[in-house]
Each structure stands twice: as structure tokens, then as C-alpha cells.
Design goal:
This protein is an alpha+beta fold and 745 residues long. The chain has 23 helices and 22 strands. It holds the Pfam family HET.
């Protein structure tokens, strides 16, 4: 069977995938492979050609002396685009702009003065009503300071002048026509008492002929301006014809380019949202091809559910006439996807969580349709407590409605503060943010002040890797255990936050192959460390020093000898595929049976009972606990559960308890056997030679990779090891003398 690669993907599909990406993301995608580079470059080239027109926006130039900051700006008109000096690379293309009326200015250099200075700024703007003379939007393209040298003025007046660049990267340049002027002595000037200077005073007239702007800079500015259109549209929807409104809008009130000012504003977000009168959440315009009536029909479903919940019965509650026909109801359910996480980006951004969780009153504005969050909650509560109304006709695809209920329930949990600091961070880490650091800063409003004292500074001058490392240490202090270190599989190297320590919780991205909530939910039922506590003072000290090295006490268990095949399950694409896992589990059992660590007695079974090897292997698959669909531990595994697990290995039969336990526990793990015969499961990158350690405050053991120095280790991840999970390591011998001080990277 031939192997399909990215090269076999049709151009139309690849172009369709890349087309929606912003320019900056598209440039990053070009680095993936040669095929991506070709497709992304072609897409960027088309955008660059379209950029020259600017659409409804225009380019304005500010060019003035440092003392003339209030000088008016000049409107520019496009006169073409192309590379300079034969540079055919996309980054070498420049957009050229002329002027309706060429601006002029005079430059005077006194004796021995070598240069004059001009402040230059270029922006993309969208003008408002002519009567008011205001800009509707303003996005900077580039700025800098020109030094107009005496020698350049002389050369330019003789026709030998070149472009003057406003910045070292040559993103913005100006071409002038230079004309010398007669410098007249001022009336009543005193007689000269010093020798004539070699550099006499001179005066020139500069007429601006052409503005050159690197086209990629214009493209990025247009991308940013387009992103701001949502705020403009929201403002138009919110303004009242007869009353003034006092609004706070983060996109307008926070200077994203000033990290210190931004940090101050972000620290105030909890107070701003908590003390506002009302928060109006902008979900965006109603998308094409939905009409206002289509969107209103979708919201009618929510309104009716809320009315039924409030009345306590369906009797007497007016049913929306627009939903009486089954086909129309079916359409309305599908339209809900544009209101919920399925197709509405608001539900995927980390900052939007505080918009609902903190204010005393919340309204959601979708186009011109306004619906109260209280109505949203009532609709959710009806579905959770009583189910969907009987008046609703049966529909083949109720997924949009289920998405609505589930996501509202999660957000309502945040509003009620049902989760502690770590669970809050872990639950919402899948939400996105333009700046990775906001994946933690954007959640601080949901965490009581003082719990993450260093992280609460919201320092935007510290790299994301350091922010996440400090946050992990502070979460360990808050949990008083290593629970934050078992939260998730480590993000693959190619997607990981640059320079992040391997032990830190990487909030920047999600792993492709995730262990999800299992280790987090089951952390309390295990006790591998035998009750040994993590030193809170040491963790606080590491956080204060912003340490990249985790210094902690631990006990060596054993070294991994054999490793089974990886079970790779992307549950978002495939779910937990039963046949895939069963075949891999069979291979794991073969690995266990091949280990030289097991004596012959391990293979012998008493009548009606599994052998010791079989029972140990089955308990590894179960984690010695039976779990529910959320991976919460229900009860300890019994002998019948062991037999069920072995039956799955042999025949593939699977009860619901085993499905919830084995399929989720084994997904995205590898099986291993140690030198002494311990069996376990661990991270996908566990290898022979890696070591199993129990660390202070760790209810799970950890897989560590040895380094040349005996006390230095590379972090691999947490694991399950049968025979260690209940503190058996500490059952007989005094382990205090065997404890070692480790430095984990």
C-alpha cells in the first residue's frame, strides 16, 4: 500500500487550508516543508498584489521636524508595487505612493551643523464622516527618524540623491526633490568676529516625490486593521441615539505595544470586570449566509427553553411560531452552531472567559440580537435537569444544541468558581490567545488574589517559557503536591514553547496526543510517595528565583528495560478506537512475557485464577481502579475486573466499565517493564534506560532520563507503575538514607 504524503494533497485543498490564515501565520506555515513554502508564497504574492489597492482604507504620512508634532498628515495614493534593485523575494517588494499635492518643507543647517532631523510615521487609516474629520481606525505601519545630512543635500541638489530610509530595516523610505535656496543674512545682524566656517549655513527646499513602504509591512498592518473591525462594528451596535455611554473596551483601552502599560491594565482586569455595571459581550456579526431571521430562529430555541425552565412546565408557554414546522426547527438547530463553540471564535479565546465569569450582569450581542446570560443559563439548566422540551420535534443532528449546553455549563462553572487554581488553568488551557503569556494572565481573574503572587505581576517583558515555569511552581505550592506535573502529556518538541523546561506546564500549545484528565482526576487515589510532602518553602524559593531547574528530593525505583509499541490516538479525530488499542495491548503483553525479570512461577496460574504475570499486566491496564467516562476513579479493581481486562486482550470483548477505563488509560501511552520486573505505563517518549523515580509530593512516579551527572535528570513525564502506587517503596525499609537530591531539567 503506497504511503500518502503532503505532496499528494491537491493544490486546491492546500490553498483552501492556507487562505484563511493571517499573513504572519502564513509566513510561519511556509517553513513547514517545501510544498507548504510554495503554496504559502503563492498565497502571499496574491495578497501583496491586492494590498496595493488598500480597499476602503488609505495610507497617510506624517513628516515633520521634532518640534512640529502637530503638523498635519498627508494622504498618499498608490502608484504601483515591485522589488527594488532586482530583489525578487517577497520581502524585497515595495509599495510606491505619490501625493495629490506634493508636500514641501524647508531645511536650514547652521554653520558646522551636519544634519537636520525629520520624524516620519506611516499609518493605514479608515476615515469617518467628512463633516467630523475623524479616523474610524488607525493602524501603524512604520515610523522612524530621518537624518538629512549636509552632504546628502548637496548631492541631491545636483541630482545624485538617493532614497532616505526612516529605519535600519529599510521598511519606510522617502524620495525628495531638493532645491537650494538663497540664505539671507537677517536684518541688523552683528558683524562676524570669527573665521568663516568650512561648513557655512545652508538652506534647501525639499519636495516629497515618492513614499516607499515595504509591502509586507502594509499587509501586516491591513491584517491588524481588519482584526480591529470587530470593535468598530460593536461600537456602532452599542451607541445610543440620544444618550452618552461610558464604555471600557480592552482593544481600545490597552496599548498592546507598551508592555509596562499593558501589564498595569491586565492586572486591573479583575476589578474592571467585577465592578462594571454590565458587560456586553460581542459575539460578532451574524455570518453569511445566515439572515437575521435565521439567527433569531436559533435564539428562539434558547428563549423557549429558558421560558419553560422559569415556568416549571411547558403548559402555557408560548411556542415560537417560526419553529412549528419540523424542517424549520431542524434548520434553526443547525444555525445554533454559529452561536456556539462549533463556529463562533468567541468561545475559543481565553480572555472572553472573564467577560462572563466576573461581571454582575452580562448580555450577549450577536449582530443586532441581544440575549441575556441569565436566559442562556436557564436554557442550560432545563437541558441538564429535565432534558429537552417535549415540544421539540426529533432531529437527526442535535450536536449544536449539545455543544451549547456543554459549553455554557463549563463557563457557568467558572462563574461559580467551582474549580481551584490548578483545575482552572488546566481546564481552560485549550482556549487560544494571540500572546501565549495570556494563557495564564487571562485566567487570573478566576483565581483568588495572592495565590500566584509572581505570575500576578503580568510581566510582558519576560519570555513565555519563564512565565509558564514560574506558574507551574506556584501551582505546585497552591496544590501542595506535584499534581500540576501530571496534568498532561508534554507538548511535542516542534510545537512546544521555545526554551521551556521539560517539567513545566506548557500552556502555549496542546499536545497532539494527550492523556487528558485521567492522571489529574486520579491523583488523590494513589500515594507513590508514601505521604512525603513537597517542600513549600523550596518551591517558593525556586519561583522567586525564576529557576529553570526543579530541585527536589526523590527515591530511585528502577530502570526501564523493555518498551512496547506506542498507542497513538487523536481522540478529536478518531475517538478511542477499540481495534487499534486491542492489537497494541496484545503486543504489550508479548513484551511482558519476554522479560527475563520474571521467574517461571509468574507464568503459572492456580485453578480458576489468572497467573501472577497476567494479573499484574491486567492491573496495569486498569490502573488498579475502575473509572467513569470522565476518568474519575469509581472503585478499586477486583478479580472479576482483572478477568474482564484479560478477556479484552484475548477476544476484544469490552464492558462499559472496561471501555471507560482501559481505552482511555492506554491511549497515548507506552507499556514498559523494568530491570527488576515492575510493569507500568508512561509517556510516549519513554525509552529503555530511562529511570523510574518517586518524588516528594508525587502520588504518581515519574520517568526521568539520566544525564552524565548522577543527580541531574531530564524530565520525561509521570507514569503508572504496578507495585509502587500505594507507597510500597516505603512499606518495609527506612528510605530516608536512600533519598537523593535531584536537579530536573
Amino acid at each position: 500500500m503506497s504511503c500518502r504524503t503532503i505532496d499528494s494533497l491537491p493544490n486546491e485543498i492546500l490553498d483552501a487550508l492556507l487562505a484563511p490564515l493571517p499573513a504572519r501565520t502564513l509566513a510561519t506555515a511556509a517553513l513547514v516543508s517545501r510544498r507548504f513554502h510554495e503554496a504559502a508564497s503563492a498565497c502571499l504574492r496574491v495578497r501583496l498584489l491586492q494590498t496595493a489597492a488598500l480597499g476602503t482604507r488609505e495610507l497617510v504620512l506624517e513628516c515633520h521636524a521634532p518640534s512640529e508634532r502637530r503638523a498635519p498628515s498627508t494622504s498618499c495614493r498608490s502608484s504601483g508595487m515591485g522589488p527594488l534593485v532586482g530583489d525578487a523575494r517577497l520581502g524585497g517588494w515595495y509599495s510606491r505612493f505619490g501625493f495629490e499635492e506634493a508636500p514641501e518643507r524647508e531645511v536650514l543647517l547652521d554653520e558646522d551643523e551636519l544634519f537636520a532631523q525629520l520624524c516620519v510615521g506611516v499609518s493605514v487609516v479608515q476615515r469617518g464622516p467628512p463633516a467630523r474629520g475623524l479616523f474610524m481606525s488607525y493602524t501603524g505601519v512604520g515610523d522612524g527618524v530621518l537624518r538629512v545630512w549636509r552632504t546628502w543635500l548637496s548631492d541631491a541638489a545636483a541630482g545624485r540623491g538617493d532614497v532616505l530610509w526612516a529605519d535600519p530595516w529599510k521598511s519606510v523610505g522617502l524620495r525628495f526633490a531638493v532645491e537650494p535656496m538663497v540664505l539671507q543674512e537677517p536684518v541688523g545682524a552683528l558683524p562676524r568676529r570669527r573665521p568663516v566656517s568650512d561648513e557655512p549655513a545652508v538652506k534647501y527646499r525639499l519636495r516629497l516625490e515618492e513614499l516607499l513602504v515595504r509591502t509586507t509591512q502594509v499587509l501586516l498592518a491591513l491584517d491588524k486593521a481588519t482584526a480591529q473591525d470587530g470593535a468598530q462594528t460593536a461600537l456602532r451596535k452599542l451607541r445610543l441615539p440620544d444618550l452618552d455611554r461610558c464604555l471600557w473596551i480592552d482593544q481600545l483601552c490597552i496599548d498592546q505595544h507598551d508592555p509596562k502599560e499593558k501589564a498595569i491594565q491586565v492586572r486591573l482586569m479583575r476589578t474592571i470586570y467585577s465592578k462594571c455595571t454590565r458587560c456586553i459581550v460581542w459575539l460578532g456579526e451574524i455570518p453569511h449566509p445566515l439572515s437575521h431571521e435565521d439567527a433569531d430562529a436559533a435564539i428562539d430555541i434558547i428563549r423557549y427553553m429558558a421560558a419553560v425552565y422559569e415556568a416549571g412546565t411547558e403548559e402555557g408557554v408560548h411556542y415560537p411560531p417560526t419553529l412549528l414546522a419540523k424542517p424549520r426547527f431542524n434548520e434553526a438547530v443547525q444555525f445554533l452552531r454559529f452561536f456556539t463553540r462549533q463556529d463562533n471564535a468567541w468561545w475559543t479565546r481565553v480572555w472572553t472567559l472573564q467577560e462572563v465569569a466576573l461581571p454582575p450582569s452580562v448580555d450577549l450581542l450577536w449582530g443586532s440580537i441581544c440575549v441575556s446570560w441569565d436566559v442562556i443559563l436557564q436554557a442550560k439548566d432545563l437541558a441538564v435537569t429535565k432534558g429537552l422540551p417535549a415540544a421539540f420535534p426529533p432531529v437527526d443532528d442535535m450536536l449544536p444544541l449539545h455543544y451549547f449546553v456543554t459549553n455554557v455549563a463549563w463557563v457557568d462553572g467558572a462563574r461559580q468558581r467551582l474549580d481551584g487554581p490548578f483545575d482552572t488553568v488546566h481546564k481552560w488551557r485549550w482556549r487560544g490567545a494571540t500572546d501565549k503569556r495570556d494563557k495564564i494572565y487571562g485566567l487570573l481573574g478566576l483565581i483568588d488574589p495572592g495565590i500566584l503572587p509572581i505570575t500576578e505581576a503580568c510581566d510582558y517583558e519576560v519570555p513565555a517559557s519563564e512565565v509558564f515555569a514560574v506558574a507551574t511552581l506556584e501551582l505546585i505550592v497552591a496544590e501542595q503536591s506535584l499534581r500540576p506535573m501530571v496534568a498532561c502529556s508534554r507538548v511535542e518538541a516542534e510545537n512546544a514553547t521555545p526554551d521551556i523546561p521539560r517539567w513545566a506546564l506548557d500552556l502555549g500549545n496542546l499536545p497532539m496526543y494527550n492523556t487528558n484528565w485521567g492522571p489529574v482526576h486520579c491523583f488523590p487515589v494513589y500515594n507513590a510517595c508514601g505521604g512525603a510532602k513537597v517542600s513549600i518553602d523550596e518551591m517558593k524559593s525556586l519561583a522567586a528565583r525564576r529557576s529553570r531547574i526543579l530541585e527536589i528530593g526523590g527515591w530511585y525505583v528502577d530502570t526501564i528495560d523493555l518498551v512496547g509499541d506506542k498507542i497513538l490516538i487523536d481522540e478529536h479525530k478518531h475517538g478511542h478506537e477499540n481495534p487499534v488499542i486491542r492489537e497494541k495491548v496484545r503486543q504489550w503483553k508479548t513484551v511482558a512475557e519476554s522479560s527475563s525479570a520474571f521467574q517461571e512461577s509468574y507464568f503459572k496460574a492456580a485453578e480458576g485464577k489468572p497467573s501472577k504475570l497476567d494479573e499484574t499486566f491486567a492491573r496495569v491496564l486498569l490502573g488498579d481502579w475502575v473509572r467513569d467516562h470522565d476518568q474519575t476513579a469509581l472503585r478499586e479493581a477486583t478479580l472479576p475486573d482483572v478477568e474482564d481486562a484479560l478477556r479484552f486482550c484475548n477476544t476484544g470483548e469490552l464492558s462499559m466499565d472496561m471501555r471507560n477505563t482501559i481505552l482511555r488509560l492506554a491511549a497515548n501511552q507506552v507499556f514498559f517493564v523494568t530491570m527488576k520486573g515492575y510493569m507500568g505505563m508512561g509517556p510516549l517518549d519513554s525509552q529503555p534506560g530511562d529511570e523510574v523515580w518517586v518524588l516528594e509530593g508525587g502520588n504518581y512516579p515519574f520517568i526521568l532520563k539520566p544525564k552524565p551527572e548522577p543527580t541531574e535528570k531530564d524530565f520525561v513525564g509521570s507514569g503508572y507503575v504496578q507495585g509502587v502506587m500505594k507507597g510500597e517503596l516505603f512499606a518495609h525499609d527506612d528510605q530516608s538514607e536512600l533519598k537523593q537530591r535531584l536537579c530536573i531539567y
